[in-house]
Target: cysteine desulfurase
Amino acid sequence: MTRHYLRLSGYALLAATCLSSHAVVSFTTSSVPALGRRTNSMGGIGMVQLNGASDSELQQKQEQEEESTNEDLWWKNYKMEHAKVAEQSRPDFEILSTTLEQVDNKPLVYLDSAATSQKPKQVIEALDHYYTKLNSNVHRGAHTLSREATAAYEGARDKVQKLIHANSRNEIIFTSGATESINLVVYSYARANLKAGDEILLTEMEHHSNIVPWQMLAETIPGLKLKFVKMDRETGAVDLKEFKSMLNSNTKMVAFQHVSNVAGCVNPVTEMVQMVRAQADAKILLDACQSVPHMPVDVQTLGVDFLAASGHKMCGPTGIGFLWGREDLLNSMPPFQGGGEMIDQVTLEGSTYVPAPGRFEAGTPAIAQAIGLGAAIDYLQQLGMEEIEAYEHEMAEYLVRRMEQVDRVTVLGPKSGTPRAALCAFIVDGVHPSDLSSFLDMEGVAVRAGHHCCQPLHQSLGYSHSARASLYLYNTKEDVDTFIEKLESTIAFLTGLEGEGGQADDDFVPFI
Ligand SMILES: Cc1ncc(COP(=O)(O)O)c(C=O)c1O
Model:
């Protein structure tokens, strides 16, 4: 059953108003900490309980309290061995050192990188360089600018190939993002190869972009079946036993996330691939949107057939992403869209197509964005994907452990102590995620609220929405500390208002 929150609609309305009104922000932001500051109740409660106790009992109790207070303060001494990743990179992200005029000049604490990452100056300069020095269409002209633009655009393809260890540059198709990459597989490969009686295996954790296109396909092929593997409630990752049990000779397509954008779990891809290969003759699509930006990814080792990712989540521009596929497989697939660039010969009777990648890149591509993605890959590689992964691992543990200690908070996905991504979706008992994110926003802290394009997972966990804090290579321990401090004061403030805010309105979700 879906759990309902008491939504403080009056206050949320105030918060929403604040987003567009500086005058109201000034008033409200100064009120929140004053009203909401969380007090450490340890001393007061202890004294009441100790009335009438003997001296030794009193001392014992005090020692216990000190011990537990020190344990609670473990985070003050938490050391990050790879913190130089953020120290080195942060100055490259000008936006992170700006203060938000709209919210009383509070410094920005950006914790929404799973939605989109910030861009370093190197990427912004690459875009600027293209438009000021190279702007021209690609593959079309013999003139200097066109040749140089083509070289830069194709150079970006080489960089993607190296990043994910693809066999050939021809295996990299530029798309507008992971969503288009998945749709390409659905409308080209699956539409041509799947038929009634076949099964597609997905998980309930998938982003809508890896559910809806398959549902749309199933509507056009009666008898095509979609099956969904559940999340293991213990591990917070995909349920491997169920995954194995749902594979059979009818399974023709398996598509799942590498890293969940809600649970933050890292699915054991190679193990899952082995299960598929042993039990089915199916193609495997990996949604690597939340892994490629954060860790080394090697398509040879993973053993999948297709991989989809978005540039804007890995320091690159919006409007660019890629699909990787095995070259022979790509060349066996019909084009996704028709138009210029993807053809070999066109007559009025019919057309023939060039091999991959050209056959899947109809029309003028996103040239500047591809070049920007290339610059982003250079940037990530110069920091080192292993280093980024190691740092985010430390940050993930820190974030989740701290979240687990906040009253009323339930963290979704794996518990602390388990390797996971540096993102944390959570529920606050009695507080609507949208209220929470609106009030945190007034403190300069940007977190996301909603279903994060994962309604089925939320429904399955018994929630309609959650809030989510997601980190990237530029976030620091101090960012997490500020977030936790503001989270605690906001929860205290909002729960102090419980019952005063009006009607429960669980359906109202201003942000998704
Ligand atoms: C796991 C996952 N898959 C797919 C997508 C879709 O990516 P895009 O919107 O860039 O196409 C996202 C975006 O949030 C995601 O997190």
